[in-house]
Amino acid sequence: SCNKNLEKTDIIEENDELYCHACHGKKSTNFSKSDEESSTEVDDMTCQLLEHLPKELTNSCNMTKDKTALLLFEQVKGIFTNLDELIERIKADQKTRAKAEEPVGISIFNRSDKEYTHKNLKSENGSFMWFQLLIEVLICMQHSSTAKKELIDVCKRQYQNNSKELSIIDEFEDDYDSSNAVWWYTRESCLYRLLNKALRVQNIDILFSFRFFIKDMFKSLTEEHKKMKRSLTDHFIRVYRGQIISTDEFDRIQKSIGEFISINSFFSTSRNRKQALGFIRSVVSSDAIKKILFEIKVDIRLSTKPFADVTNLSYFKQEEEIIFMLGSIFRISHIDYSEQDEVWIADLTLCNENDHDLRDLFAYHKEKLGQDLTNVVSLGDILFKMGEFDKAKQYYKRILTESSMIDLTTASCYFGL
Q1: For residue 16, what pLDDT is reported?
Q2: pLDDT exceeds 50 at position 91
Q3: How far apart are CA 380 and CA 394, in angstroms?
Q4: Which domains does the chain carry?
Q5: d(Cα 133, Cα 379) in Å, to the nearest integer?
Q6: What's the burial of 379, exposed, middle or buried (CB within 10 Å: 0-12/13-18/19+)?
C-alpha cells in the first residue's frame, strides 16, 4: 500500500481500492481500481453500482475496453491507467472545487444611486471606482528591485510555522520569473490564498507587496489574450464559473439586474459548462448559501481588461481554462433558477471599458490621479475622501518606505498624514 500527501489531499492505496480524502472539499472521493486483465468490460453489476453512487463521489478505473459505456455515467469523471495521472486529476479537481467554495469579492455599480456623484466615494459606487483605480495604479507604477524579497518576507511571516508552505516559498524565491506568474498563481499554495484574501478584505499593505506579481499577471494575460484573438475565428465566446455564495451576496446581485459588477480577484472560468456546473451541483443549498452558475458572454473585439486561455501556462494543465484580469467588469443581464440543473443561472456580459456609463467616471478620477499613474500619492487622497482614514494612513506610510529621497512625493505623503 502507499500513502501520498497532495497539498490537503490524501491518497491511500490498499489492495483493490484507492481512496482519496480531500480535507478542504469536505467530501471523500472514492476511486475504484480494477485488474486490467480481468476487467476489460463493463458488466451489469458495475453499472448497478455506479447508478447508486451519489454524485459527489467520483469514480475512476483503469479499464481499457468499453470506456464509452462507463463515461455515460455522470458519476464517472475519468478513466486512468496511470496512477500519477490520476493523482494530478484529483489535485486539479480539488483546486477547482476549492475555487467554487471560496468567497468571491465583488463590487456593484448602481447607476440609479442618486447619492453618488463624481466626488462622492463613500458609497458602494465609490468603492467600485476606488478598486478600479487601485488596480490601475498597481499595474502602472514602477517597483523597486527589492519588491520580490518584500513579498517573500511577508509570506514567511504569515506561514512561519508551516514547513510545507515555507518550502514552497523557498522554491518561489529561487525559481520565480515574470514569465511564470500564471503558473504560480494557479498552483495551490500560500501565494494564491494570501493574494485572494488580501483582495477580498482590501488589505492595502499586502496588496502593495504583491504589486510586481499583479503586474506580471497582467502582462502574461495581455500577451495570451493577443494570441487567443488571433487564433479564434468567432468573435464571441461563452465561459462558465460555478460558485457558492452567501444568501446576502446573492440578494445583492439579484437586486442589481442591468447594473455593473466588478470581480475583485483573478476570475477563473471554463469553456466547459458541464465541468463548471459539476463542482457545485453536489453542494446542498441552505438558507445561508446559494449555488450559482455564472454564464458569461464575451466579445473578444472589445477593449477590456485582458483575459486569456491559460492552459499552456497553468500549473494544472486543465483544458479550456480562461482567467480574467482582476477588476474585470461585467453587466448582469438576468438571473433565473434552473430546475434541470438545480442551480441559479446568472447571465453576465463582459463590458467595454469605454462604455458610456463608466467612461466619464473613469476619466474624472484618472484626471484626479494625474497623467502619470506611477505617481500614486493621489490614491491616498481618494482613500481619505472615502472616509477610509486608516487605509489612507497605511497607504501613505507604505509609499514613504518606497521613497529613497526627499521629493514632491515624499512631501505629499507627509502632508496627507
Answers
A1: 46
A2: yes
A3: 9
A4: 2-100 (no CATH), 102-358 (3.90.176.10), 375-416 (no CATH)
A5: 8
A6: buried
